[in-house]
Amino acid sequence: MRTKDEAILEIRGESIGVITETSSTEEKFQNLTLRPILKFQNDLFLEVFRNYAVKQKGVFFTLNPEKKMNYIEHVIQRDIKFRNALKGMVIGMFTISEYKEYIQNSSNINKRMMNLLIERLKSQIQLFE
Fold first, then answer.
1. Is the distance from CB of 56 to CB of 87 less than 8 angstroms?
2. DSSP assigned state of 31
3. How many domains does the chain have?
4. Which domain covers residue 100, as residue numbers?
5. DSSP-H helix ranges across the chain
6. Residues 6+ apart with CB under 8 A from 127
7. Banded pLDDT at 117 (limits 50, 70, 90)
8. Side-chain half-sphere exposure of 110, counting CA atoms within 13 A
9. For residue range 10-32, what is the model confidence (pLDDT) as tens digits?
10. Residue 4 above 80 pLDDT?
11. How many CB atoms lie within 10 A of CB 89?
């Protein structure tokens, strides 16, 4: 029988991005862990953001594309409860060893995680129409 960690790694898929000998620990974590999780959870992130925007009186849907991009960035950086919910969706897909690595440098990894998520949502802004 497979362990939970083995199952998580299998469903997440391969690493995304280039990893070299000169890659920093954070860059390796980003490409081996964060990017595959964000890709795997993409549909959920889109739906969670859509729901958030609707609950915020739907203002997002009336904005022009540039302001929508600013809205995405602003919300994820400023709404701590929403940001923590998004972080939880990513952290919940960590293996035990990844979590142990994460807690050693959570501040920098959180920044990378949120920046990657912001860019991912911005790049799919047309799906919110």
1. no
2. I
3. 1
4. 4-128
5. 4-12, 25-29, 35-40, 42-55, 65-78, 80-91, 96-104, 106-123
6. 46
7. very high
8. 14
9. 998 888 888 888 888 999 999 99
10. yes
11. 16
